[in-house]
Amino acid sequence: MNDPQKGPVFTDIVLEVFKLGGLLVSEGDHMGEEYGITSARWKVLGALSLAGKPQTVPQIARSMGLTRQAVQRLVDAMREDELLCFQNNPDHKRAKLICLSALGETVFSKLSEKQSGWAMECSTGITKAELETTLSVLKRISESFER
Amino acid sequence: MNDPQKGPVFTDIVLEVFKLGGLLVSEGDHMGEEYGITSARWKVLGALSLAGKPQTVPQIARSMGLTRQAVQRLVDAMREDELLCFQNNPDHKRAKLICLSALGETVFSKLSEKQSGWAMECSTGITKAELETTLSVLKRISESFER
DNA sequence: CTTGTTTTGACAACATGTTGACATAATGAG
DNA sequence: CTCATTATGTCAACATGTTGTCAAAACAAG
């Protein structure tokens, strides 16, 4: 369990995560291209859809693990593109509620369909057990940095 | 093997890779802070050290999987900071050879030491077999996008 | 109610990546 | 050798993230 050879393997995983992250962003950008959407915007749609109700910018930011400033910029741009709409927040004069527009919902659901087929394709040749181990390891590593 | 439940697990892995990537960059930035180095610059030092001999900017870019423009900007800034030095390339008037300065080598070796201890710490609680499965899965996914 | 703290939006500066465009240097085909 | 192509450095615009700062709104004590 305390095999000193674990360090180098861990290091390789780190480098692979960097590389794969870049490749996945490109894949996401490409998938969203036909809807005029990038990976970052897709994630905002996902956060809103997951929440199931309108959210403030800081709420979205916390759920995505980004700063509120980064999310604010995305949200402002996506409102320009009619993917989102703003509602007044009865509980807070400044913090507007962000919700999916009809267009936003349509785009997100089409992307979800496309993505689920893609995910199935990508996992050919990898067993479910391997995928689950991978997810579990990545989550444990993430958690170790969050505290 | 063609379990339809693999898709959702794959999707979770994708999201975890995004999240972990961000966390790892922060960790790297923090580790390099005392040497005035960021994750991106660290990777340039690593590429040069791995190559074992002076490299041109496009060579470094190809080995890192980045565009030459991105690497050029890093390299120019790192030369300002005395981490790298340029040599004339006898084979090419414009494409200068980039090499580690004495400072660059020192910083990289100190960072490597620090990083290897960190990698060992991070892998406590994870078996070597789990780490190896994870690395293998990530590599297979990466490879599927490279062609 | 008043006061001190936290949350939020807005703005700016920076780091790191991308793409596109341009001129020049190197190379290869004929 | 000449000419078309490729490789390189440079510059600019953009996307996405960060941090820091400021003022206004919300909130929590007292």
Automatic annotation (TrEMBL), chains A, B:
Q: Which InterPro entries match?
A: HTH_MarR-typ, MarR/SlyA-like, WH-like_DNA-bd_sf, WH_DNA-bd_sf
Q: Which Gene3D superfamilies match?
A: Winged helix-like DNA-binding domain superfamily/Winged helix DNA-binding domain
Which GO biological process entries does UniProt record here? response to stress
Record domain HTH marR-type: where? 6-143
Pfam families the record matches: MarR_2 (PF12802)
What does the record give under GO molecular function?
DNA-binding transcription factor activity
SUPFAM superfamilies, A to Z: Winged helix' DNA-binding domain
Put simply, this protein is called MarR family transcriptional regulator
According to its UniProt entry, this protein's organism is Terasakiispira papahanaumokuakeensis
